[in-house]
Amino acid sequence: MADDFHKPALFGGREFEAFPGARDPAAVMRIAHDTARSLLARVRDSDDPEVVDRVVRFTDEHGLDAVAELWAASGPRTLPGALWRIYLLRVMIRQDPAGVALLFQRGTEVLATIDPVIAGAPSPAGPSEVLELADRILHGVFDGDFPHALERAAAFCRVEAAGATSIADDQEAASPERATELTTRASRLALMADELAACARLAHDDALE
C-alpha cells in the first residue's frame, strides 16, 4: 500500500486529463475534495511509519506547484483549503528559516496571548527550531489530532504576524519599503491564521469537508 501511495499520481495533476480544454470548476473542486479526503484516510490507515514522512516531504521532492494544482483554488474553510495552507506554511518556513525565526521571536515578545504556547515552538526559537516545528505541525495533521494541528498552525501564523508588524514599525523611518513588505506579510499571515482557526473549529465538529 505504501508503494502505491508514493506514486506522484495522487498529486501529479493527471486527474485533470479527463477534462480537455477548459477545466470544469465543479469537477476541479470535486477532485480537490476527493484527493484531500483520500490522502488523510490512506495515511491514517497505514501501518507504515514511512508514509507520513513521505507525505510531509512531498513538496521537497515534487515542489509546491504539485499541491497547488489540486488544492490552491479550494475555499479557505474546506479540507483541501486547509491542507493547502499547511503545506504553504511549511514551504514558507523552509525557504527562510532564519527570517521566520526572527519574526517568531519578536512575536513572542510583543504578544500578550497564549499563541506562542499553542504553536509549540521553544523560546528563543532559532531556524532549526522553526524547521522542526513546521514538520511537527504537518505530522500532526496526518498522524495526530487534526484540529489541534490546525490550531497550532493558526497560532504560529498569529505570532509571525505580530512579529512582522512590530519589526515593520521599527523599520518605518529607516526603510519604508521594508516596512511595507513586512506589513503586507503580516496581513497575509493574519488572514491565514483566521482561516486555519476557522478550519480547526469545523474539524472539531467533524464538519470540515
UniProtKB/TrEMBL annotation:
CC annotations in GO: DNA-directed RNA polymerase complex
The domain of life for this entry's organism is Bacteria
Record key words, sorted: DNA-directed RNA polymerase, Transcription
Question: Which protein is depicted?
Answer: DNA-directed RNA polymerase subunit beta
* Species of the source: Protaetiibacter larvae
